[in-house]
Amino acid sequence: MKATTATRREALATMLAAGLAPAIARGGQRAPGDKPNLLFLWTDQQRADTFGAYGNHTYRTPVMNQLAESSIVFDRAYVAQPVCTPSRSTVMTGLWPHTSGCVNNNRPLPKECKTVPELLADSSYRTGYFGKWHLGDEVFAQHGFEEWQAIEDNYQRFFSKGRNPEARSQYHQFLSSLGYKPDEENYFSREMASRLPAKHSKPAFLAEKSSEFIMANRNQPWMLYVNFLEPHTPFSSAYNDLHSEEEAPIPANWPGIDAERDPDWAAKRRAKQGKGGEFGTFDVRDRAKVQRANRNYAGLCSLVDQALGRILWSLEASGQADNTIVVFTSDHGEMLGAHSLYGKQVMYEESVRVPLLLRVPFRRQRQMRVAQPISHIDLAPTMLHLLGHKDWGDLPGFSHAARLEGRKSGDGHVSIEWTADGQGVPDARAVISPDGWKYVLHQNDKPMLFHRHTDPLEMDNRQATDQRKRTELQQRLDQWSKQVGDKRSF
User: Fold this and answer.
1) If we measure between CA atoms, which residue out of 94, 64, 109, 69 comes closest to residue 354?
2) Per-residue pLDDT tens digits for 18-48
3) Percent of the chain topping pLDDT 90
4) What is the tally of helices (H) and strands (E) in the chain?
5) Sign of the C-alpha dihedral, residues 406, 409, 413, 419?
6) pLDDT value of position 390
7) How many domains are there within the chain?
8) Is residue 184 part of a domain?
9) First to last CA, the chain
10) Distance CA 327, CA 325 (A)
């Protein structure tokens, strides 16, 4: 079958139909004693500044914008570690990567590390995990999830002993049923999927399966995690030309190079990314190619937004919207050319800061904004608290359920870790303070110190000029390391 690229008009028409359709039925008032549902929606590699709640009014993301209007918007939400597997392990378990052992990609989540449904341990809930997992045994149901809809087929070499290496995702089966033929050795590559029409994309597939799950389980409590691959690389989709250059501009801090103050790893990483590989098509040294990457990335955000519209429409149609906790976040960000870098794995804001929306309609929650920094380490305790499980044992995070009543939670300091494990960036730890400072300690390399309020683009590394603040935050990092058992050696 022939892949197509949507015209701008076609894309807008499809988004309008799928994302903004009216609800066919509105749920009644939540009855006392009803157990709430949890709809946890998350993306892969989505920066915070990709929709209106975070200042972006040019990306075509009407559903994200609409969801934010009825949610708590956490202005400064940060990941535990800026790369897929470690971040996912924290979101799912409430444990630091150094505690779970998931310190880098393709580390399986140990059986003894319980996910939110396992911690809740309530058999009355129907549970589902749909989308990218990246925590081991990709296409097999596990860790308390009964229903499983996988979309990724490039992790077979990481299957556990005894797993069938020929097993393929449900998305593979979906494409095969449409007559598509695998372009790789018996599986569909991400590159091929990125060239398909929007209706055959991974987000569209997840929207369909999620809608079926919601409607099928509308008469019982349920918990559904939906994880999109997009806007992760490859930066391509049917919506590549949906946004103009003005609507998806290159980052204001491109090229953003300060050789005297930058850590040494930054120059090495830039040189490596300019030679090809994952980002070769979008050479970070070439303004036009960085522009192309940003336009394509914006299109991917719109593709996800369209799928979110379908899922939230189904939630309304099921009559369960008033009794469902909705979360929207991402596992990490994307540099997109900022500081002449692509990807994640670094402590710059574009890599570590993500969107985070929380909607809890049955708590009479109003739209509000939270300026205080918070961490993904807090998501599991918060979910458990909202689901009525107030004892989350030894989890190190805070519950932010108090925010629903306008009360404070946590002390506003956030720590982030990075374990390189041969990935070309030195081990690092960062601490972010509620008054706008960020301190990053690198192993055998220059530290970084930024004041985000006066330097939002992080162009002025003040580590050599603000010794008092550097010492204060170093002490805060040392305190955190001791508290959480982080045995760093630098």
Assistant:
1) 64
2) 544 433 444 444 454 589 999 999 999 999 9
3) 79
4) 13, 15
5) negative
6) 80
7) 1
8) yes
9) 54
10) 7
Tokens of 436: 């706008």
In a domain, 21, yes or no: yes
- CB within 8 Å of 171: residues ≥ 6 apart: 149, 150, 151, 152, 153, 188, 193, 202, 205
Q: Is the pTM of this model over 0.85?
A: yes
pLDDT class of 120 with cuts at 50, 70, 90:
very high
- Are the CB atoms for 33 and 319 separated by under 8 Å? no
> What range does the domain containing 300 cover?
8-411
E strands within 367-480? 368-370, 374-375, 414-418, 428-432, 437-442, 448-451
Mean pLDDT of 193-204: 98
**Cis before 234? omega within 30:** yes
Q: Note whether 200 and 104 are within 8 A (CB).
A: no
Q: Under a CB-based contact definition with an 8 Å cutoff, are residues 451 and 382 in contact?
A: no
CATH of the domain at 341: 3.40.720.10
Which residue has better confidence, 306 or 265?
Answer: 306
| Residues sharing a CB contact under 8 Å with residue 376, sequence separation 6 or more, in sequence order | 77, 78, 79, 80, 87, 90, 91, 329, 354
User: With bands split at pLDDT 50, 70 and 90, how would you rate the model's confidence at 265?
Assistant: confident
pLDDT of residue 402: 85
Q: Is residue 295 part of a domain?
A: yes
Contacts of 488 (CB under 8 A, 6+ apart): 427, 429, 443, 481
Which helix (H) or strand (E) segment holds residue 223: the answer is strand 222-227
Question: From CA 313, how far away is CA 319, in angstroms rounded?
Answer: 10
* Both structure tokens of 267: 């120059």
CB-count burial class (<10 Å; 0-12, 13-18, 19+) for 346: buried
Is pLDDT of 4 > 80?
no
Residue 444 lies in a domain: no
